[in-house]
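PT: before anyone asks, these are the final sequences, not the draft ones from last week. 955 residues across everything. Please model them as a single complex and drop the result in this thread when it's through.
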Amino acid sequence: MKKNKTNFMIATIMLFLLFLFSIFKFDVIEKLLIFAIKPKDFFVARESLFELARQHIFIVAVSSSLSVLIAVCIAILTRFPIMNELEEFILGIAIFGQTIPTVAILALLVPFLGYGFKPALVALFIYGILPVLRNTIEGLNTISEDVRESARAMGMSPFQVMSKVELPLAFPAILAGVRVSLILNISVATIGATVGLKGFGILIVNGIRSDDIILILKGAIPVSLLALTVESLFMHLEKKFRLP
Amino acid sequence: MKKSGNAVSVLGALTIALSFLFFSFAEYRPNRVLTGTDISAKELFGNGFFLLLFASLVLLFLTVLNKKSYKLMIGMFILLIVGLVLYLLGGALDDDAYNQTVMGRMSIGGGLWVFLMGVFMVLSGNFKNYEKAILHRRLFYLAIFLIILFFLFSGHLDKLSIMKEFFNRSQTFFRQFNRHFSLAFLSVLVGILIGVPIGLLIYKSKKTNNPLLFLINLGQTIPTLSLLGLIMVPLAFLGERSEFLRNIGVRGVGFTPAFLVLIIYALFPIVHNTIAGLNMVDQNLLEVASGMGMKGYQAFWKVQLPLSLPVVLGGIRTAMTQSIGNTILAGLIGGGGLGSIIFLGLAQAAPDLILLGVIPLIAMAFMLDSLLSFFIFYYQKKVLGIKT
Amino acid sequence: MIKLVNVSKRYQDTVALKNFNLEIPEGMLLVLLGPSGCGKSTVIRLINRLIQPTSGEIYVNNKDIRHMEFSKLRRGIGYAIQNTGLFPHYNVYENIAVVPRLLKWKKYDIDQRVDTLLDLVGLNRNYKDKLPSELSGGEGQRVGVARALAADPAILLMDEPFGSLDPLNRERLQKEFYRIQKQLKKTVLFVTHDVEEAIRLADKIAVMRPGEIVSIGRPSDFIAEDKEGYIKEFLGSEYALKLLSRFMVQDVIDQRPVAVKNNVTVRHYFRINKESTVSNALSMMISKGARSLEVIDEKKRIGLIHFEDILMNVFGGEKNEKE
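LR: through. Structure below.
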């Protein structure tokens, strides 16, 4: 099936351009939509679309970087024999965490951390860890034992084995985990508007409240394009790093 | 074998003891809005505190020794401690000192959560690495749940702030609870009815680049709230233009958009797992089946479907738990459900209201998840004969 | 040089090695021959300290390996295993270059070395950029051997390196490795359960049964050894026949002139190449019913080989040597 050669590079670039267009030139889109939908125009956002985009991307970037870092560290640590006992405990927590919905965690954090940036950051961090952790562990596990043994036998230190052999081989899996984590983050950051987080979600929530469809779209379209761009980018990267 | 599980359960027992010593178990607020004062376990439970401390030390002792015969005893001890905590809590609630005013509220403090985490650690560390471990563990979780329910229903804990919130709006609560469950459950049901055939179709077509698959992946990538918003647009449009559609419930807010979005999200795990499950069945087996004279559809019903069912059911399980979570958003658009309680709590800055929405939600998710995974386990064992 | 003195290795309730003693002088290729699970792989792993002995000492080049740092020890030892263990994400060049890079060689030297090794193992130099997934079984094993030899170690440890190949490739690689070893004269510990492989490669063979060595000797020594039942059973009753594959026709040639008329020999002989093994010759004699064959060197006749010579001189000769 030659059709499978979806070029993600092109898709990424196109989506990114659309995304930028939707942020900077939304009025054009608005004019198109007016044909079909009655405009309401009651709510004028305090920040421009660009500013909201910046904040949305900012919190996703920060929390993702942290979760990836921590998740990879934990995954590496589980390789040590000491951690075998804790492995099932960690897995248990992870499964527990997966069953609890994102909004619930967000809402639970509010009494402790207030509204806005802080509880959202913590929630994003917690949710971001699991996909990366799971994929990294699995990626490391699929490495043939012979390869590991050869690496040790050739005189590589444990650190070198991990950094030169194991991590590079697990890299495609890690990338997949990061992709899932990022998409999840973008989604939760949107919902974060319900606890006061600044981002695209505000527009959607306010649009729902004031029955202003254009406002909803003002938030929904850019954030969807953002998510699609990220997904496309990572599909491209995964393809690039996958071993034949 | 010798040291397995020891570290975690010991840590758990330690956590339990520490929760009594160093954390506030309750918080007293003179009314709903003002910040409250922390109350330690000692203050709260009075003499019962020393009993609890003693019990947790015994528990610590038992977990350190880590003898096989102690496993059951440890479990029972945990139940005992949990029951004791709840009993004393109820007793403390009745204490006049904390009920000076009608408006006064006593809510759960951080210590109780730390305590529960310790309980979880002890149970997970204690029941593991032997054949019936998971079953036993889940049974004890169930027991704890029942104990909590017992104390709730006996009215013992009625003076707790969260219960006060509950009584303030008990009718609404049950209505929203049912709403939530129906939305989640129905959306998964429809998801199955649509998703499994789609999965079958995609599997049969054998193309890896099926446009249908692409669409479903698309739905999963787009942020939930955003998809909700996007769906609302055409629905609102349709609802406005056509009276007929409006009458059957098609409108921009409420049940319809929430339901549609939930179905879309349920499709992803169901379709993917259907395809994966069908792929997993060994091609050789199918060849043998047709070699024996089974026709295509016979081989499918008798061989392929039964064998792929565990994976498909796993997808349904994922869809179910995710659905319960996603249904929260229905509360934003007037679709009801526990989400509306949670958002109300967020808007009013009332943590108890938030908890009133969140805790039953988590309980629902866990129950269904456990139910389904038990069903899958049972199916694999009895019907397929797979040994763990 | 490798020396194991009274080495024992015990796991929970099993004894993998029991008072194991072995000495491999410099330049010798010793084959450790035994059934699966007898502990031969354990011996290899003890030498490069992938596992530690329960008791006993191990010396490499007269130094106790317990006093050597892991990495330093291992970088001086070449290691080749059955599934090659090539790094899937490195191409052939990078795989071979691993130890030289660890030793911080200059790039120019590494380039030279990789080319030399590829020539040595019989691979075209343009294999450098290929990934392991693009190599056939035989090619992968050759790269594995090249990788083991990369930093020019004095010692090679090889654990059934040709075990996963089909018989044709296996034989080919054995012959090539024999040639390489003749050239490089490394100290080699070669582990296998294949008797023919042992015969083809070994300077000496150590026959093992679970946990211990039963007997050590040159391949031809084992013909006389029919006292020990285990060895006889393990080596098989066709050992003598298999041993014949170690000798080449040109070793047993009879070069006396033969009656010729018009540049063609009077009597008609079947022909065999001088580089065939004696067992090939015997096989041909049996199939053709001929007691003598004509030996050819690139179509040119250089002599004859007779059945009686094979009978008397191959092992009989060795026996005479000993006496």
